[in-house]
Amino acid sequence: MEREEAVTLLKCHSFAYDDLTQPKMENGFIGSLRPFRGHLIEENFHELMEVLRVLAPEFARPSLDREVMACLWGITHMARAWAVEPEGMLRRNNLISDEQVALMEQWLNCYPTQS
After folding, report:
1. How far is it, in rounded angstroms, from Cα 31 to Cα 28?
2. N or C: more exposed end of the chain, with fewer CB within 10 A?
3. How many beta carbons lie within 10 A of that of residue 23, not counting itself?
């Protein structure tokens, strides 16, 4: 995967891509949480890890691509707010199981934007 493809895929997973008809917008990491269809899509996690692998050299630079960082922060923030936090929409409405919450938290803890 080249950088351009990685950035496009990252934008789709973070629901920040310009073309709303792109299927990954609906079924990507954030798109799959709203509306939540009862299951987490593991392929999305693996695709995001591949995106991070491709973009990893950029994280060592003194300045970071604002758009890339906004997408990463968006994914971690929205997924945590919607699926992990006790008052998040998926937990508050009993749409996500405790096992799915734990899995989502594991996935989010793999991202470099976590403190």
Report:
1. 5
2. C
3. 9
